[in-house]
């Protein structure tokens, strides 16, 4: 059992999602002091460990379906490089450690809800139409809420609406891409796709991105400062870029898309730079 298989099952590339923890601090224009910043680091580790633990357990649950997938069949559990018993043991340990870290910085309730919803999705919610999409999308706003609690920064209502709509945009875009790419094989690879029509998934991501754009614009102009208003430009362009990827059925793996698309990265860095400049202004 090489350490490499354990690391692959932990999916560290997914940890990029935890960058949302810094959103409340950045958008409030206040860079965290050393103590809140340290809590933010602990929150990042806690979410990363909890998410990785869920991935181990989910891989055991999905092993049979993953073996039908062109790339997921190479996952250690699906490829039988890791035994289900070991994967569950490691997963449980990681989830417990993440919860303990969360408790140490008074984020136990948020991380607990995240773990509960994620595990419920593994065993039950994935079979419920629409609820499965909401369950997956819920992880993003929970990270934003945790970031606000960790640093004491205020989480704007409209910013939270943006996060909720944006996360649903990413999730429905992922399902749409999977449905288009896998075609007739989609039911064997992801059974839940049998309950969705491609046209309905397309409508879902179009509606979600419209709500995200509108909510962000309301927040940006409502803040009453040039930095927030300017941030609408890279935000809108990033959404349009991501829409292009979904429309081309290239968003089945959002983390890969974000890590490989230089345009998305440049827009993200521009957005971060605007708020970093506001913090030092």
UniProtKB/TrEMBL annotation:
The keyword Transmembrane applies. The keyword Transcription regulation does not apply. It is found in: Membrane. One of its GO terms (molecular function) is transferase activity, transferring alkyl or aryl (other than methyl) groups. Its main location: membrane. It is a multi-pass membrane protein. GO terms for cellular component: membrane. CDD domains: PT_UbiA_2. It holds the Pfam family UbiA. This is Decaprenyl-phosphate phosphoribosyltransferase. It comes from Thermomonospora echinospora.
